[in-house]
């Protein structure tokens, strides 16, 4: 099944998101995804994806929660995902309230994905500590579990506390929305196996679709799941395809086929670097979704 990252960043942030969402759903898209960037430092101490710089497209971006609410309001069928929310930026009570509302408005179509982020400057701007990001993610997931599945709710953790409180509005999806996690480090893969419902790996087109690497990472996830007493087959996968500037659409279609042949049939395509307006986004979507 094929989905798309929505036109959220760069010049595309000014696109007609409502029209894009309704049209891609009509064309047959299976899922629509948002990302999470807070700001772009002029002098970053850490670059994007292991580099020294940050893409210019990140200098403008739609708020992901508002974007998801718009998507929920104008579509009826597509799943609505995040790849990924930077978990430590958000207090769990506020995050739970926003995501619960989106799940309710969408009729239970939310696929919340979380990660730990990489930009010290964004963490500083968010008022969140950069150290122990993995521990913060674990605590956030613990708090979300309480907020989504119990009532009254209480949580007493290292960073956040929730006094015993009534939280009556719960997600449509029961017992809670499926939690997807990104990451490729050993600690991240172990966390996915131990507690996630889904995995969000990423590949690059051209040149970055290597099923053997995905298989090796998946084995680490499955081993962690078995160690935690979980069924590895219950952990779903959505593969993100990041399309580089200048990549031809044929290369993207071939990547989708290669991933499907390797067992990864649920994918979504990020066109941030190759489409700058809604017409370009829709042309790519129409061609990729064509029978």
- The radius of gyration is 18 Å
* Alpha plus pi helix count: 9
The SSE string, one letter per element, is: EHEHEEHEEHHEEEHEEHEEHEH
Low-confidence runs of at least 5 consecutive residues: none
Largest sheet: 7 strands, parallel
Helix-residue proportion: 25-40%
How far the N terminus sits from the C terminus, by CA atoms, comes to: 12 Å
Strand line-up across the major sheet: 5-3-2-1-14-13-11
Percent strand: 15-25%
What is the approximate shape?
globular
Q: Would you write up a description of this structure?
A:
This protein is an alpha/beta fold and 291 residues long. It is built from nine helices and 14 strands. The strands form three sheets. Strands 5-3-2-1-14-13-11 form a seven-stranded parallel beta sheet. Strands 4-6-9-10-12 form a five-stranded parallel beta sheet. Strand 2 (31-34), helix 2 and strand 3 form a beta-alpha-beta unit. Helix 1 crosses helix 2 (64-74), helix 1 (17-27) packs parallel to helix 9 (278-289) and helix 6 crosses helix 7 (211-227). The longest helix has 17 residues, at 133-149. It is globular, with a radius of gyration of 18 Å.
Helices and strands in order:
Layout: E1 2-5, H1 17-27, E2 31-34, H2 64-74, E3 79-82, E4 85-86, H3 92-106, E5 110-111, E6 113-115, H4 120-126, H5 133-149, E7 153-156, E8 161-165, E9 180-181, H6 186-195, E10 198-199, E11 202-205, H7 211-227, E12 236-237, E13 239-243, H8 249-261, E14 267-270, H9 278-289
Parallel strand pairs: 1-2, 1-14, 2-3, 3-5, 4-6, 6-9, 9-10, 10-12, 11-13, 13-14
Antiparallel strand pairs: 7-8
